[in-house]
């Protein structure tokens, strides 16, 4: 008997026992459905995490100022000057592993308008390297340049939403925007990049959609800030590919503690560690889901063994006739193994469809991202075939060991 003939006979046998076969399939279907949905949700979560981490920069180390109550600010400033450009300069001098760097300062906005509209966008002064370090791309125009920084140029780059609010569908390049008392010339507009989540592992993520960026030197020179306010809101350091981010972060932490005299008026953010933390959480979720799926597959495997044992009892005379006509034990064993594997694979294929539908329903209800990959169906079908083989061994062995004469007499 070849495999094709064995599969055809298995399908014919299942057709004669539709209800029993359908009930046996349920365990495999739900088990595989759980595996597929788990892998789809996990894959989607991984891709979304990588997309969110782009907003921070995977190889960046970020030092961010912590807002302090006004009544405590004078006391804090006796020990720490807050986050300053000098902190950034000393960090660059101390850490040769750092390549690019960028600083960020938020401007307190009172009025923001153009000749065509108004906006509630946030305005930030940034170093020229800030946009590439955080993965922001331009749709039109140019980015802020080092020359803009040196000349204290009154130019700006608009987020996509800010551009629509201020200029509608018109071309904003070369047009003017007034922020507080300063007129700025638009030189670029950022490409669309919306974020599904407002934070990642407890760290707020700011969407660039409704932001306006100006040169940092222009922001610090032409705009007013509160007394004793931090000179910078944050600065980013990009660690070279050959260096350890954890080592750089540890050195930077000691440096900042020394400079700020152990005053906790800043926090250190390491996106790589946030991603590792997310993956650990995701791993726990995967283990729980894999356990549930494994139990379902175990139940399905027991169901397969049960139906195969029933088949052996019902077809004892058939087995005897086959043996009497010259079939070997290996032929009988192969026949029942093919039947067990076939029913497992059928359950797996139906379960794949259920898993995709389940992942879609979960994503629709909970808002979780999901993604498909070829890996998920391959794993599911392989596991099903393995379960079918394992739980079909005993019934196949029992059928093959039947004595032909005794089998014919039943």
Describe this structure in words.
This protein is α+β, with helices and mostly antiparallel strands. It has two domains: 3-52 and 277-409, no CATH class; 59-270, no CATH class. Helix content is 56%, strand content 15%. It has helices at 3-16, 18-54, 70-77, 85-94, 130-133, 146-150, 160-167, 216-222, 245-259, 271-314, 316-324, 329-366, 375-400, 404-409, and strands at 60-65, 98-107, 112-113, 122-126, 138-141, 155-158, 176-179, 182-190, 199-200, 203-204, 211-215, 234-239, 266-269. The strands form two sheets. Strands 1, 2, 3, 4, 5, 6, 7, 8, 11, 12 and 13 form an eleven-stranded mixed β-sheet that branches. The chain has a two-stranded antiparallel sheet with strand order 9-10. A hairpin with a 2-residue loop joins β7 (176-179) and β8 (182-190). The radius of gyration is 33 Å and the shape is elongated. The model has no long low-confidence stretch (mean pLDDT 82).
């Amino acid at each position: 008997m070849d495999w094709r003939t064995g599969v055809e006979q298995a399908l014919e046998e299942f057709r004669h026992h539709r209800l029993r076969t359908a009930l046996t399939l349920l365990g495999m279907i739900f088990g595989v459905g759980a595996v597929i949905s788990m892998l789809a949700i996990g894959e989607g979560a991984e891709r979304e995490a990588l997309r969110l981490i782009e907003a921070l920069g995977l190889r960046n180390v970020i030092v961010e100022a912590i807002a302090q109550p006004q009544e405590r600010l004078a006391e804090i400033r006796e020990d720490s000057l807050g986050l300053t450009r000098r902190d950034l300069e000393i960090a660059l001098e101390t850490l040769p592993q750092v390549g690019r760097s960028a600083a960020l300062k938020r401007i307190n906005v009172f009025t923001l308008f153009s000749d065509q509209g108004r906006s509630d966008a946030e305005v930030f002064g940034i170093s020229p390297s800030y946009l590439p370090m955080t993965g922001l791309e331009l749709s039109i125009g140019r980015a802020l340049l080092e020359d803009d920084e040196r000349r204290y140029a009154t130019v700006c780059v608009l987020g996509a939403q800010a551009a629509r609010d201020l200029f509608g569908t018109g071309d904003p390049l070369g047009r003017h925007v007034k922020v507080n008392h300063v007129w700025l010339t638009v030189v670029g507009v950022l490409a669309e990049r919306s974020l599904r989540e407002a934070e990642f592992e407890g760290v707020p993520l700011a969407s660039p959609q409704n932001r306006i960026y100006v040169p940092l030197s222009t922001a610090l020179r032409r705009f007013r800030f509160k007394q004793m306010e931090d000179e910078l809101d944050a600065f980013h350091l990009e660690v070279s590919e050959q260096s350890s981010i954890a080592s750089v972060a540890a050195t930077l932490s000691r440096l900042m503690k020394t400079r700020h005299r152990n005053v906790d008026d800043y926090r250190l953010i390491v996106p790589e560690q946030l991603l590792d933390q997310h993956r650990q959480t995701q791993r726990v979720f995967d283990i729980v889901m894999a356990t549930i799926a494994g139990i379902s597959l175990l139940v399905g495997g027991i169901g397969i063994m049960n139906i195969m044992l029933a088949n052996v009892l019902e077809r004892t005379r058939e087995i005897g006739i086959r043996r009497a006509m010259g079939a070997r034990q290996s032929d009988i064993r192969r026949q029942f193994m093919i039947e067990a594997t076939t029913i497992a694979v059928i359950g797996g294929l139906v379960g794949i469809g259920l898993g995709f539908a389940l992942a879609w329903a979960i994503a629709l209800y909970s808002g979780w991202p999901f993604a498909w990959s070829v890996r998920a169906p391959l794993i599911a079908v392989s596991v099903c075939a393995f379960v079918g083989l394992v739980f079909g061994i005993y019934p196949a062995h029992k059928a093959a060991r039947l004595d032909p004469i005794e089998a014919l007499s039943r």
